[in-house]
Write a structure and sequence with these properties.
GO terms for molecular function: DNA binding; DNA-binding transcription factor activity. This protein has nine helices and three strands. It is mainly α and 236 residues long. It has a three-stranded antiparallel β-sheet with strand order 1-3-2. Helix 1 packs across helix 3.
Length: 236
């Protein structure tokens, strides 16, 4: 009987971790491994296994797992503990409906406070997206572009919720973007959104963002519906 590979074996820990940095190091290390797929969806993360891996007590591990749960990267399930969350949780339309509400409000509050450097950074992300072919990097750049326009919203709790949604989308795009056939169209949306934000046209910016996200949910919903029969077939 062959033994299943341990997903934690892909995580390399360089030397002892200072106690005051343990929680943040564990959180960032696990976050990166979840986002890039080294720790796949459905994997249960045991506190003692992680404590042994990082050479720390279970307390900073527990705190790191709580942070990752708050970012929607982990679900706590009875009798299993912290489990890596699915790429798209629940109904895609409902997920995007919530994102539209949160991101529209973040954009509305951020635009009056954005500076030239914010617009320049957002434009650089678009330029990189135009030439990038690595789907992992495309997901990351997409998240960074949106956060460049939202980052001046003064409500930090709102921004955390917004970034949680973008993190979930980033994970999904990393593993499904090529199959979905998405590409240059989204950059046209991004450029139009950036122009409206630069002009401080808040209502037009929000409308463009809503249209952009609605197109995204249509494409993702169609993709998930078309992929469902194949998933059922392979799961039998």
């Amino acid at each position: 009987m062959t033994q299943k590979p341990n997903p934690l074996s892909s995580i390399k820990v360089n030397g002892p971790i200072p106690a005051h940095l343990a929680r943040s190091v564990i959180e960032e290390t696990l976050r990166a491994a979840i986002l890039d797929g080294r720790i796949p969806c459905g994997i249960a993360l045991r506190q003692q296994d992680l404590a042994d891996l990082f050479g720390v007590s279970r307390m900073p591990v527990r705190e790191a797992l709580r942070q990752l749960e708050a970012q929607s990267l982990l679900n706590v399930i009875a009798h299993k503990g912290a489990v890596v969350a699915p790429l798209v949780q629940g109904d895609a339309a409902e997920t995007y409906e919530l994102r539209i509400l949160l991101e529209s409000e973040a954009l509305r509050r951020s635009i009056p406070l954005l500076e030239a450097a914010d617009f320049e950074q957002a434009a650089r992300y678009i330029d990189e997206l135009e030439t990038e072919h690595d789907y992992t990097e495309i997901g990351r750049l997409n998240r960074l572009f949106h956060m460049a326009l939202y980052n001046k919203a003064p409500n930090q709790r709102l921004l955390r919720l917004v970034e949680d949604g973008l993190n979930e989308e980033e994970r999904f795009l990393r593993f499904n973007l090529e199959a979905m056939g998405l590409g240059k169209l989204s950059q046209e949306d991004h450029r139009a959104l950036l122009r409206a934000a630069e002009e401080r046209d808040i209502e037009r910016s929000v409308t463009l963002l809503e249209n952009h996200l609605n197109r995204g949910v249509e494409v993702i919903t169609r993709y998930l519906e078309s992929a469902e029969p194949q998933r059922r077939k392979t799961s039998k």
